[in-house]
Design a protein that fits this description.
Layout lengths: L4 H12 L5 H8 L3 H11 L2 H11 L26 E2 L2 E2 L3
Antiparallel strand pairs: 1-2
Length: 91
């Protein structure tokens, strides 16, 4: 799948968010975890990529559903604008 600039920006944004699991990115963009890692490696500076990987692999991140607390049943903050089909809804 070829992504345009806006989609790449959204994938990067979702990848940086601690609560957004890789499965949500796969659902919206058909990118597996390894594809997201490759995209992040390509698009970010080396130091930024290293910080992101360290954060994903730390106990802080909830990027993997199997590591996620069962009480978390959403992948976005309740204060975040509604997102549907990767388009930010207008209020």
């Amino acid at each position: 799948m070829i992504l345009d600039d806006a989609q790449i920006d959204r994938v990067i944004e979702m990848a940086w968010e601690d609560r957004t699991p890789f499965e949500a990115i796969t659902y919206q963009f058909a990118l597996a975890e390894k594809d997201v890692i490759a995209l992040m490696r390509k698009e970010l500076k080396r130091s930024s990529f290293n910080l992101w990987r360290a954060r994903v692999n730390s106990g802080v991140s909830q990027k993997h559903l199997h590591k996620r607390n069962a009480e978390i049943d959403r992948f976005r903050c309740s204060r975040q604008k509604s997102i549907s089909g990767n388009k930010i809804s207008k209020r």
